[in-house]
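Late entry, adenosine-5'-triphosphate complex.
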Amino acid sequence: MEERNRPESKNFIEAFIEEDIAPGGQYEGQTVHTRFPPEPNGYLHIGHCKALCIDFGTAEKFGGMCNLRMDDTNPTKEDVEFVEAIQQDIKWLGFTWEDRFYYGSDYFEKDYEYAVELIKKGLAYVCELTPEEFKEFRGDVDTPAKSPWRDRPVEESLDLFARMRAGEFEDNQYTLRAKIDLASGNFNMRDPVIYRIRHMHHHRQGDKWCIYPMYDFAHPIQDALEGITHSLCSLEFENHRPLYNWVVENVSVPHKPRQIEFARLGIDHTVLSKRKLRNLVETGVVSGWDDPRMPTLCGLRRRGYTPKSIRNFCERVGVAKSPNTIPYAFLEFCLREDLNETAQRVMAVLKPIKLTITNYPEGQSETMVVENNPNRPVDGSRAVTFSRNLWIEAYDFLAQPVPKYKRLYPEGPECRLKGAYLIKCTGYVTDEEGNVTEVLATYDPESRGGDPADGRKVKGATIHWVDAATAVDAEVRQYDNLFLDADPDAAGKDYLACLNPNSLEVLTGCKVEAGLKTSDVPSYQFMRLGYFCKDSKDSSEDHLVFNRSVSLKDSFKPTV
Ligand code: ATP
Ligand code: MG
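Prediction complete; structure with ligand written out below:
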């Protein structure tokens, strides 16, 4: 990551900005000012993180500022729940807008004034085409669009626009259109609608307005009024840039921001569209926006993702101009890398079978002191009890060994109980149906800590365990991709048909170290199993619930 500070590794946005603020550039000597403009109609997802890292991160790099602005221009869908969640998520990632929090709708009065200014300049007119006629007169690549109202006198447009605002007309009866170029090869420039009538309640403005500005008109004005120098947005706005520029050139705004576009982030095996994510929530496919399988920030947080892992991910994915789909495994790689440093090592048994150490005295118990994280001695150590009856993973024993099996089986190799003793399996107990109910072993009292006193080679595996006398029960939720299909987000694909029916596996009766009942570190490494965290919603001291954040094994070979 240090690489990024070297001049040659500057991304194209940074290179543009550097030019702009250099002597002779259009923002010579100015403070770089960006903004993040989410539409409060859903929760932020990992795609938004990329935009956040670019908007806030770029400002940070240039010692500038980034505003947070709710893009609530469209009156249909906003919700206070989303506004608050968006703020919480951005703070959690570690970005700050300080006191620069705005709503697009706060500029409605200004938008209106600028629209009037355009009419007065002969650069906008009230049009009466119905939505159907509008389509019909749109033209095509070879045919210009048409509007019989284009040359409506300024006075008449002014009057009609005022009456539109006053609520005299029905939805869609009139529109205000910018007078640009009906023959433009860019359809966004073919006299785009900049105001429409919508008799709708606005979540902040109430019923004050029944005309609403279009995003392409309102957005550049919002940017300009806030003194934004660089308006960074995703690539779908590239074709709208001429209109963005036209607006800031033709209304008397105090600043002229520059729009620069970057490619959206895509991740395989998931969808990154609020509409689709909302649908998963509303149809009950997932338990909510914060279901740990969701690519939302709140879902990732509940799953055990850290801000650092997500920011590292975005940083490494980089800022490209061409669309890119990143393997979900790379996101997991970034998490594993962070948790490897910070997670507390503990032992938990997910599919338990009883192990009895037959030569360990009944009723006896001892305490092993184990380091919490060998990578970070500052994390200290904790006590783990050991006694005659333990829980081990059922898969660490086989009555009939298979070739190369180095764990427990009768007359098998000596195995190490992590941090405790060396043991040898001597037999097992079955129930009437022949199922193994208990594994029997003897231990070497001279091997306390897990190493032989005589230095002999231990041929078997090291296995994890918990003391049956003190272990507590837990529920463990293991997650897999939400979608089996690698690209469920592809245009035209029925994403609901690509769901993975096994994306959630719930294990009950798991056994964990007693200390986990009350400990509250953010992340654990369950030895040999993966990284886990307590579920922030469902876990309690009486009913522990852990989410698997990511497995230990790394199937991903980083190429990014
Ligand atoms: P969605 O399709 O998920 O509804 P959106 O673009 O409508 O996304 P906004 O709330 O308008 O969502 O997005 C706020 C900002 O985040 C915009 O600048 C948008 O370009 C950016 N953004 C959204 N999705 C992505 C993505 N997948 N990758 C990068 N940036 C994104
Ligand atoms: Mg949007």
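The chain is about 25% helix and 25% strand. Will revisit in the morning.
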